[in-house]
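_Per-residue structure_
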Amino acid sequence: MRSIRLLLSMALFSMISLVAMADKDPFCKVWYNQEKDAKLEVYQVGNTFEAKIIWLKEPNENGKPKVDKNNPDEKLRTRPALGLVILRGLVKSKDEANYYDNGKVYDPKNGKTYDCHLTLKGNTAELRGFVLGMSFLGRTSVWTQAD
């Protein structure tokens, strides 16, 4: 009886795992930023996507872990750079399979937050950050899928 329960449990777990893997969005991966000095983990929260820093080429500064020193809010300048969520609110387009829009991207190098949209192109993601809701007033950063 125990072995039957164990087999049924394992089968159920396997089916749930397969369904979860099948539903995973192609953007939900680990990516290098354009400079390849950081790895970003993209994950889904409800119907939006977020990304956080999970690796830094140089995680320390002056012998201590890097912090969010350029944040405009003084209270946040001591939070660790590792684990910092830099992308929020990105929504997958219903019309275009590889297009995501309406997000906000935070650049810890200058402490500024920008509107953004993103296009997946194979193993790259083109993230366009811009100001005042005008995409032509911005720049594109190309992320590359990490190994």
